[in-house]
Amino acid sequence: MQLMKCAVFYGKHDLRLEERPVPQIESDEVLVKVEACGICGTDVSMYDGKISYSDHTVGKIFGHEVTGTVHDRGKDVRRVEAGDRVVVAPVYYCGECVHCMHGNENLCMNWVCIGEEVDGGYAEFLRVPERQVYVLPDNIDFDEGTLLADPVPTPLHAMRSRAHIKPGDLVAIWGTGPQGYCALQLAKLSGATVVVIARRKDKLQLAQKLGADVTVNSQSVDVKASLMSLYPLGVDCCIECGGYPEAISQALSCVKKGGRIVMIGLQKALTVDIEEMLWGEKELVASVSSTYREFEIGIQLAESKRIKLKPLVTHRFRLEAIDEAFELLTRRTETVVKAVIIP
Questions:
Q1: What does pLDDT average to over the chain?
Q2: Is 250 part of any domain?
Q3: Residue 33 sits in a domain of what CATH number?
Q4: End-to-end alpha-carbon separation of the chain, Å?
Q5: 134 with 86: CB under 8 angstroms?
Q6: Is residue 79 part of a domain?
Q7: Residue 257: how many other CB atoms lie within 10 Å
Q8: Looking at the predicted structure, is the pLDDT value of residue 243 above 90?
Q9: In this structure, are 10 and 139 located in the same domain?
Q10: Are 156 and 186 in contact, with CB atoms under 8 Å apart?
Q11: Are residues 192 and 141 in the same domain?
């Protein structure tokens, strides 16, 4: 029996390196030799005990932003061949529930996410159904490709289905993690003027390089006063990517009457001024995950270089150093955008 190295989640601050058998695949599955697995902010929040997780996540191999090479495939697999470079869609949608049947598979009633419901990608090998595997273009390296698993398609879904951004709109974005930077680039592609709000000067500088028209340092200025001095009627749309409760309150005070706030970042608890929402007829909507079609579109945008991924990969760690990686992301003692684990 062949064994592989992997990192298994057991709860708050408890991520253990183990050896487990290499997965055996079924006829419709693919065995991926993992080349890189990005660390998602959700992983860090679960590791740090800031968001809840199901009992079935305990004891699972962690990680869901995976790229790799097809090592083996089941007899019924047709879309990929051994040796293909691939990126893995993190969630398996059933295709049969009412939401899937209406093209909203991100709301699937039976979804299964790698790294949570089933074993994930902080490992040498990953077993995954064929429908979750997409060919990674030759001009995108494995590290960059991890961003196509979640940080690109998630805000892309928000832009396409929830934000309704039009050319000329004013858009404010909170959060300068991978999803925030991808949201910035997608909003620019939609023809918007984009304001980015963040706490760190170096992250705002990167936002400028990626196309931000205006940046606001929330550590040194009053966000509402700053934005309203620039745009007295408020902005058309606010996108919250960081999971910060104060960002939603700021967005409510900065979005124009009839405007919309889209919440991508996970919120544990949230208190908002409902009266301000009512009198201004302001919308607060949530956006979760993405569809398979949006996954494909994200790959196409990256392949054509309409969005930049390479500047977002700032740190690489071997699997053996995964504790060091998570501690760095938990402490936030230095600027990290996307950290990648290499088996």
A1: 94
A2: yes
A3: 3.90.180.10
A4: 19
A5: yes
A6: yes
A7: 10
A8: no
A9: yes
A10: yes
A11: no
**Cα separations in angstroms, 196 against 29, 152, 182, 259:** 41, 17, 12, 17
Q: How many domains does the chain have?
A: 2
Tokens of 261: 């706030």
User: Is there a single domain that holds both residue 81 and residue 161?
Assistant: no
What phi and psi, each to the nearest 5 degrees, are found at residue 325?
-65, -45
Alpha-carbon dihedral 335, 337, 338, 339, rounded to 10 degrees: 10
Q: Which domain holds residue 267?
A: 153-286
Alpha-carbon distances of 290 from 50, 97, 338, rounded to whole Å = 23, 16, 20
Pairwise CA distance, residues 191 & 282, whole Å: 22
What is the per-residue pLDDT across 135-160, written as a single tens digit (0 to 9) for each?
999 999 999 999 999 999 999 999 99
Mark whether 86 and 185 lie in a shared domain.
Answer: no
Separation of alpha carbons 290 and 144, rounded Å: 19
Strands 133-135 and 85-88: antiparallel
Nearest Cα to Cα of residue 125 among 19, 199, 225 = 19
Compute the distance between CA of residue 324 and CA of residue 333 in angstroms, rounded to an integer: 12
Which amino acid, one-letter code, is at 268?
K
**SS3 category, 284:** strand
Asked, for residue 294, whether it belongs to a domain, the answer is no
Helices and strands in the chain: count of H runs, count of E runs: 11, 17
pLDDT at position 306:
97
- How many CB atoms within 10 Å of residue 247? 25
Q: For residues 252-269, give the mean pLDDT.
A: 88
In a domain, 54, yes or no: yes
